Request: fold
Amino acid sequence: MKMALLLPVAAARSAIVVAALLSCVACRGPKTQPAGSPKAPEPPAAAPEPKAEPEAPAVVATVAGKPISREELEREVERQSLGRNKNPQLRKRMTARVLQGMIDDRLVLEAAAKYSVAASDAEIATDIDDMAKRLGGQDKLDAFLTKQGWNRDQYREQTRISVLRRKLRDQLFPADVSEQEIKDYHANGANTDAMGEKVRIALIEIKVPKAASDQDWKTAEARLAAVRKEIEAGLPFEDAARRESQHASARRGGVMEWASKRRSPKDLFAPAFSLSVGQIHGPFRTASGVHLIKLVEKKNESLGSLDQERESIRTLLTARKRQENQKSLAQRLAAEFSVQTSL
Reply:
């Protein structure tokens, strides 16, 4: 009976203690900063998320609705630059130029399909053989293709496009020369490009790509300076040309065709007109590379009779018209087929 009375009392005491503790905690309230104490530093603000660069479009151009992918473009830029063009501005300009070339090729393919123009295996093979002959043989052609980053199949396709472009040009823009045009040209013979002082040179050329560095140019110049010393020490110029030159004339010992002051590329041939036969000039730069030349022959040529000059004049005027027609073809195809770029 006594134990039964003690249990309720103990429970009551425990309840009183718990209530007192809770009351004490409530009285304290929230913890406050003591007066006069320094304020705790705010946590640093989170850094803003960097803005993601916009993704480059996967398609850089369409020709007649058919895409040219960025991957194709970058692969071709890398091939043409030989992996050496790291300057961003130069690479940007080169990329634009390469893209235009790819667009031009696609336009030719579209036009060939529209106008039923085809390039036969024989025509393609003839052009490839001609290139091999100019370079000095099939092995030289293979070496040239390797340097350009092409294999035979790629080069054959590029040659096919060249044949198609030529046939389209001649079909859409015939280069006919009239008898009156020949007579007019002959009548103005005193000022004709084919007449007057002419030179024949031997050439040693080291090609330098447009995107090359200044060091590449200096290396080519140093190489030809060393070759000139060999020639001056007794090495025949023609042998040096066969060994060193990257020009198509190398297989002929570097000897070029006759050139007049008006018709020849001035940057290459102009120095020859002030040389004596056998004299050497260079190394010097042009847009295509570094050169060493020797004057082989020099002569003055006068215009013959109309009958004597008719065919040579026809050939000259036809070549001029074809050159102009090439530009006309490019303009017509660009207007005829839809081209869109997003570069």
In short: Strands lie at 59-63, 66-69, 196-207, 259-260, 280-286, 289-301, 339-341.
